[in-house]
Amino acid sequence: MTTLRGPDAAEYCEWHSAWTDLLYVRQALFCRKEIPDTPANMFLRRAAWEGAAIGYGRCFKTGRRRALLKQLIDSLDASQRERHEQVIHWRDKHIGHRVDPSLEQSVAQVRVNDDGSKRVEVKLTVTPSPNEAEIQELEDLASTLMNMVHETRIGPLGTKILDQM
Asked: pTM for this structure?
């Protein structure tokens, strides 16, 4: 076994890492589908969705990967780009920081009981996750991007590296 060094090897590893993150997204959403949609599983299903959204965002938010993947995102059709933007919004404004009032609101209230006693309560309104069709669209988008990364980046780079040996 020979360890490869140099810019092509580094780029190959970077693309493979992005591909693996997209695989994580797809598999987390696949696993979510296998969990029965019951009240007892609500938080488990939400955790799988949120994990997928965080993994997806890792590919696109900062650094070199963002630049690498921008061209692929730009080549998607309008509905796929819209799904991409929605997932990034969920990740940044709800899953990561809870700052989008359209997805979660907390209101402090005072309840006066029949006996006149008072207590402070919070009324919490949460959108737990996108609907099933939107989640399926993310799974499909992750698969599409995985294929694009492999066909346009990993495969050709691997061939280039082998040809240089």
From this structure: 0.83
